[in-house]
């Protein structure tokens, strides 16, 4: 039987430098990272870029088998 990594946290925002640092830090401590980028409607009209990062207890693809 295999288990999936647990979802730890979702972070949404538009500060690119903050997310670059977060992804680097997650890699250093061994968390799995899923990064999405989308354009969302802006309050003043038009669109703005938004980042969404999901952090997992370990990198995707690693599974543990219970014996």
Short description:
The chain is an alpha+beta fold and 67 residues long. Helix content is 21%, strand content 46%.
Written account of the structure:
- The chain is α+β, with helices and mostly antiparallel strands.
- It has one domain (2-62).
- It is 21% helix and 46% strand.
- It contains one helix and five strands, in the order E-E-H-E-E-E.
- It has one helix at residues 16-29; strands at residues 2-3, 7-13, 32-41, 47-56, 64-65.
- It has a three-stranded antiparallel β-sheet, covered by helices on one side. It has a two-stranded antiparallel ribbon with strand order 1-5.
- Strand 3 (32-41) and strand 4 (47-56) form a beta hairpin.
- The longest helix has 14 residues, at 16-29.
- The model has no long low-confidence stretch (mean pLDDT 79).
Strand-helix topology:
Elements: E1 2-3, E2 7-13, H1 16-29, E3 32-41, E4 47-56, E5 64-65
Keywords:
67 residues; alpha+beta; 3-stranded antiparallel sheet; two-stranded antiparallel ribbon; 1 helix; 21% helix
């Amino acid at each position: 039987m295999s288990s999936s990594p647990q979802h730890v946290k979702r972070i949404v925002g538009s500060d690119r430098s903050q997310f670059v640092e977060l992804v680097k830090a997650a890699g250093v401590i061994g968390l799995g990272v899923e990064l999405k980028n989308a354009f969302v409607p802006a309050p003043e009209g038009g669109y703005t870029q938004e980042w969404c990062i999901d952090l997992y207890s370990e990198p995707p693809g690693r599974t543990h088998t219970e014996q």
